[in-house]
Amino acid sequence: MSDKPTVAVLGGGSFGTTLGGLMAANGIDVTLWMRDAGLAATIRETRQNSRYLPDIQLDPRLQVETDLQQVLASASLVFLAIPSGAFRSVLREAAPLLAGKGIVSTTKGIEQPGFLMMSEIVAEEVPTARVAVLSGPNLAREMAAGALTATVVASADDQLCREVQQVLGSRTLRVYASQDHYGVELGGALKNVYAIISGMAAAMGMGENTRSMLITRALAEMTRFAVHMGANPLTFLGLAGVGDLIVTCMSPLSRNYQVGHALGQGLSLEESVARLGQVAEGVNTLKVLRQKAEEEGVYMPLVNGLHAILFEQLPLDRVVGALMGGEQKHDVEFAALWFAGEWNRGEDK
Ligand SMILES: NC(=O)c1ccc[n+]([C@@H]2O[C@H](COP(=O)([O-])OP(=O)(O)OC[C@H]3O[C@@H](n4cnc5c(N)ncnc54)[C@H](O)[C@@H]3O)[C@@H](O)[C@H]2O)c1
Ligand SMILES: O=P(O)(O)OC[C@H](O)CO
Does residue 8 contact residue 31 with C-beta atoms inside 8 Å? Predict the structure, then answer.
């Protein structure tokens, strides 16, 4: 008997297809579950996911099915690549067959009400499951095309982290482990908001100084929020923090960046999202995050600025003026607190 787990990937979009293809190429027994029977048949026949990953040839060993019960019956390790808006409903349907299994969320979103991470939804819906999250600078199309990539698997369950490293790690993909699953998961969700801003700035012809300022101040802002919520600030120096922020704010392949770019070209939010035709989690995360930051009293000028543009009809030049005219504070605020002897390294969080 093989000591490798049998794997199911739920969600036949860009990321689920990519993960399934990579694991199949590793010789893992893996089945991709998707709801669209027509697309599933096309993938079996052509070995291409024409809707989400056109021109990428998938490993012939990747199995594709539409019967959820059948897929889950034999799997011991299950990856979830379902957009956050549908995550709970899919999980609830799957729950009777997930008890005791390893579940890895790859979804970078937040559920409202409750400001819930996807791993928290897993814990609610399948209390007996072993839970991990996967996050990092991972553009699906690049990974599927074999670009050298690194990611992070985070869980309190070391054995589960090792299983994920075993099935996913390859000559093109390094899988690092972390115990800060909250920070890793939060980082993946938060960076999408800043990618929208970065895409807007690029479309408006702003230069590289501006982009660098945006990315660096975004890192300060998301770290401030995450530390307030209990994450380890050092996580944000890693792949799931600054690593993911960089790729998503820099790459035109990022769907969140693409939404921002369309907005910067003058399209409405509805038009920008419709033109994309795939999920851009940052739009919903912006609403959820803005509300939570207000409740918690965390200073987040970039989030407030983007929210004002998209949902409060404030003109862009007024928002930019307010951002540039705000009080000039410290560069790295943790360093300032450190020098003042006031930073307790998050020990009371
Ligand atoms: N694409 C990437 O580069 C990437 C990388 C890392 C993480 N992620 C995250 O993975 C998650 C999924 O993103 P994606 O890129 O695969 O999205 P996508 O838009 O490419 O595909 C979404 C998939 O989910 C399916 N889906 C939606 N609602 C469903 C439901 N109720 N039941 C079954 N299937 C349903 C769609 O049919 C589609 O196959 C997101 O949270 C995203 O942030 C994406
Ligand atoms: O295409 P995006 O904007 O959803 O980003 C994809 C990944 O999260 C990048 O790590």
Answer: yes
pTM comes to 0.96
Residues 208 and 279 in one domain: yes
Same domain, 232 and 260: yes
**Which domain CATH number covers 220?**
1.10.1040.10
Q: State the residue range of the domain holding 227.
A: 189-339
Which SS3 state, helix, strand or coil, does residue 33 take?
Answer: strand
- The best mutation among 15, 17, 105, 108 to test binding of ligand 2, ranked by most ligand atoms within 8 Å of the C-beta, falls on 108
The pLDDT score that the predictor gives to residue 30 is: 98
Alpha-carbon distance 170 to 157, whole Å? Answer: 21
Is 191 annotated as catalytic?
yes
Q: Flag whether the ipTM exceeds 0.95.
A: yes
Q: Is 248 in the pocket of ligand 2 (CB under 6 A)?
A: yes
Higher pLDDT, residue 115 or 315: 115
Residue 169: pLDDT above 70?
yes
> If you write DSSP's letter for every residue of 296-329 in order, what string do you get?
HT---HHHHHHHHHHHS---HHHHHHHHHHS---
The CA distances from residue 295 to 131, 302, 333, in Å, are: 28, 17, 21
